[in-house]
Every structure is written in structure tokens, then in C-alpha cells.
Description:
CATH class of the largest domain: Alpha Beta
Number of helices: 10
CATH superfamily of the largest domain: Methylesterase CheB, C-terminal domain
CATH topology of the largest domain: Rossmann fold
Helix content: 40-55%
Largest sheet: 7 strands, parallel
Oligomer: single chain
Number of domains: 3
Shape: elongated
Amino acid sequence: MPGRDIIVIGTSAGGVEALSELARGLPPDLAAAIFIVLHVPATSHSALPEILSRKGPLPARHALDGEAIELGRIYIAPPDHHMLIERAQVRVVRCPKENRARPAADPLFRSAARAYGPRVVGVVLTGTLDDGTAGLLAIKRRGGVAAAQDPQEALHPGMPQSAVENVPVDYCLPISGIPPLLAQLARTPAPDEEDYPVPEELRIETAITLAESGYMESVDKLGDPSIFTCPECNGVLWELRDGELLRFRCHVGHAYSAESLIADQSEAVEGALWASLRALEEKAALCHRLVQQSRRRNQTFAASRFEKTARELERHGEIIRGVLQEGINSRVEE
């Protein structure tokens, strides 16, 4: 009987340090395959495989689409691609972002739960917002094990804190305690997969990520249309109730937790405010020039009118600038 030999890990800010310590503590004979998603910019070069290969005894590399899964290896999602797991193979696909990220932890976790059920161990490490929570819940529903880094020691507690608050995690440990736990679980026989059937929602969401035939029509089965639009494509967002979790997904495949949707909407609002501020300041500058021109022509009424308009525009601009500055300060405090 196989052990808990499929280990999926999600992390974001502070993840390189946490993963380095985790890799250092792994045994060289670990009877499991490890799959890692670290949020990285789309255009960046990721040196994570080289770092983890140096820090620990297991070889690490960026995953290749269609390659066979081997125990004792670390597979890392390449930048700007989701990494998923099918039975006996890895998939690397460039499909819509989830939780504002590509790669993201939730698609990896869900695909692992669908493919291997009770054999999966899901781990959420340091990071902001809440990517990984919904995927960890899917792992639990398929009989897998859920673990999270202790939020109190995480450099950025958002992701593990969300996991602990929304998923009945089996283990909440400091990073130093996770490698021996993984080694122990890899040797522990997993329950029978037949005892944990694949929920239809899990099949659908994994199919959406893999763009399988008919996937767009399947979104209707996951929830109801909401009043919100997708920040990425402006399509309708479907509201999904995942236990106590509130999530959203559009027909194209973009997916959001409530927190990530708020973050994207906040960025859109900020962009609109900056554009408005620019337009106001440009109009005010034009009015000032017209004031000067009117005065040179002794057009006192026109000069007075343009000057009044310029003052009103500058006052409105100061209000918007104050709102923007307050938003910047709140992010710095966080």
C-alpha cells in the first residue's frame, strides 16, 4: 500500500528562506515526490531549483509538461505557468491566473487531490493573502493530510493563517518541524482512495484549469452568477460557496478568493484614481495658462472664470491625492 508520497507545497513572500530550511531538513531517501509553487513575477528568472538542490539532498528542477513523476525529486512550477498533477505525470500549462498569480498553489493542490486523494500531503508556508486555502480544503476532502507553517513564525503570516482559520489542518508547525513530519507521513500507508470519491466540483475546476473539452459550460454547475465582474477579462464572476469559503470564478478560468478579488479591485480603483488625478492636474494647468493669456488681453472676466475653475480642479485633485496617499500609507503599515 503506498504511503503519503505526493507532497504539494504553496508559498509566496518569504518563501525562498522557508523552502531552503525545509529542503535542508529532508532525508536523502525520502519516499515521496515534492511539488512546489512559489509566487514569482512572470518575467523573472527563478533560481529556486539551484538553491534547493544546494541546500538539501534532493535534486530540484523546474517541472516539464508531461514528464513522469519520480519519488525522491522536487518539482518546481516555472514562472508564468501553473503546475498540475495528473496520474503518474506532471502538467505545466499557461492558463488563466488564480488568486492573481501564475503559478498558484490552489490549482496544484486541487489537481493533486483529484489524482491521488489520500496519498497527498498539502503544506502552506509563508505568504500574503490566502492562496492555497481552497486547495488545502480539497485535499482534506479527498482524505489527504493538511499542514501549515505556524503563522507566528512565518515571515508573512497571511497564507498559513488563512489555512489554519478555514481548513481543519492536521498539523501546524514551525518550519523546522515540517521535514521530519513529511518523512514520517511518506512512510505511513495512505487510506484506500475508494473511500474518498472525487467531488464533481473538484473534477470541474481541475478541468477548467487544464482547458479540457466543454470546460467553459461547466462553470454554471459550480455556483451562481454574481454582480461582480472579473478584473482580468471583465466577464461575469460566478460565486462559489466552498464550505465557509467564498470564492469567484469566471467563464474563461480566472479564479479569486474573496481577499484576492478585493486586492485586484483595489488596484483597479487606485489606477482609476491616478488617471483622474492626472486629468484634473492637466486641466488645471491649462486653465492657469488661459488665465495668463486672458490677463495679457485685459479679459478680466475670462481670467477670473479660468482662475476659479483652476482652484476647483486643484481642490478636487488634493482630495484624490489624499485618498491615494492614505492607501499607500496603509499598505506600508501592513
